[in-house]
Design a protein that fits this description.
The strands form three sheets. The protein has a seven-stranded mixed sheet with strand order 1-15-14-2-3-4-5. A six-stranded mixed sheet has the order 7-8-10-11-13-12, with helices on one face. The chain has a two-stranded antiparallel ribbon with strand order 6-9. It has helices at 3-10, 63-76, 93-98, 101-109, 125-132, 184-187, 195-209, 234-240; strands spanning 11-18, 33-40, 80-84, 114-115, 139-140, 145-146, 159-164, 167-175, 191-192, 214-220, 246-248, 260-263, 269-273, 281-289, 295-303. Strand 10 (214-220), helix 8 (234-240) and strand 11 (246-248) form a beta-alpha-beta unit. It is α/β, with parallel strands linked by helices. The chain has a single domain, classed as Metallo-dependent phosphatases (Purple Acid Phosphatase, chain A, domain 2).
Length: 304
């Protein structure tokens, strides 16, 4: 499909967000480095597209269609990352039958780079999650789940650093509190740590010690909890921290047409995005870096 037709058929909506007070027009097309971030969340084992009789979701989704879109975007920009914000498991008979093996194999074929862990990824117990790890050809990050006394200890890191075209990208993960949401027998000795404190520590480490040009949080905390002010969602996380450039969210199945812009505690812009559930949409955010690493971003949601 020609590029113009591809964009016409896949871009649902797009918004331009400035980070660091620089406009996109000020970047030279020949000098700016472009990093594309693609992301999903709460796919919940939806491998096939929805059928024609599925109401508002009819004829949407499906791993094969997502793969085609991702392949086209990678051809357009080889400096592309593919991320997932958790709840990969549970929702169709594929999970009941294969236990997550198929989901991880397909994500590996799509060449996901990094994912975090959602509460439903414990649905076959932590041993069930561990059993599927050999099929995952991508990295898992979670900074506020302490797996040190579990079988998952060596399979999940607090963060990963990826380098694309000389741009250092730090990705760390956060998960929702499991107590009261997941049976203790399923997550065993996994310890939950305060997400705001951990996010502040992780983002400072990535920005200042690891010298990352872009810091991304893969969050399964949920977008916002207006009726539960003491519960941490992505909007509160963005406001209470610094050094995070982008929060890719999950858990609440929130569909955003474009990223939400939130001021952090240093009055700098943070992008918060989430693209619903079931693989119906693919999030895309393009970051442009000039010679001194100043950056702007452009966000869009792609209907699958």
């Amino acid at each position: 499909m020609k590029r113009r037709e591809f964009v016409k058929h896949t871009a649902l909506t797009a918004g331009l967000v400035t980070i660091g007070g620089v406009s996109l027009s000020s970047f030279s097309a020949n000098q700016a480095k472009k990093i594309t971030i693609l992301h999903t969340n709460d796919v919940h084992s939806h491998i096939d597209p929805f059928g024609p009789e599925e109401g508002r979701n009819s004829n949407k989704g499906g791993v094969a269609r997502r793969a085609t879109i991702i392949e086209n975007i990678r051809k357009e920009n080889p400096n592309t990352l593919l991320l997932d914000a958790g709840d990969i498991f549970q929702g169709t008979p594929y999970f009941n039958f294969y236990g997550g093996e198929l989901e991880f194999k397909l994500m590996s074929m799509l060449k996901y780079d990094v994912a975090t862990i959602g509460n439903h990824d414990f649905d076959n117990g932590i041993e069930g999650l561990h059993a599927q790890m050999p099929y995952a050809g991508f990295k898992f990050v979670s900074a506020n789940y302490d797996f040190s006394n579990t079988v998952m200890d060596t399979f999940v890191k607090p963060y990963e650093i990826l380098v694309k075209d000389g741009i250092r990208i730090g990705v760390f993960g956060l998960g929702i509190a499991l107590e009261g949401l997941v049976m203790r027998d399923l997550y065993k000795e996994t310890k939950y740590l305060d997400p705001i404190e951990i996010a502040q520590d992780m983002s400072a480490k990535l920005k200042n010690e690891e010298k990352c040009d872009l810091v991304i949080c893969l969050s399964h905390l949920g977008y916002d909890y207006k009726n539960e002010p003491n519960k941490v969602g992505d909007l509160n996380l963005a406001k209470a921290t610094e050094n995070i450039d982008l929060i890719i969210g999950g858990h609440t199945h929130t569909f955003l047409k474009e990223p939400t812009v939130v001021k952090n505690r240093k009055d700098k812009d943070v992008l918060v995005n989430q693209v619903g559930c079931y693989g119906l949409y693919l999030g895309r955010i393009d970051f442009y870096f000039d010679s001194d690493k100043s950056k702007v971003s452009k966000g869009s949601t792609i209907a699958v």
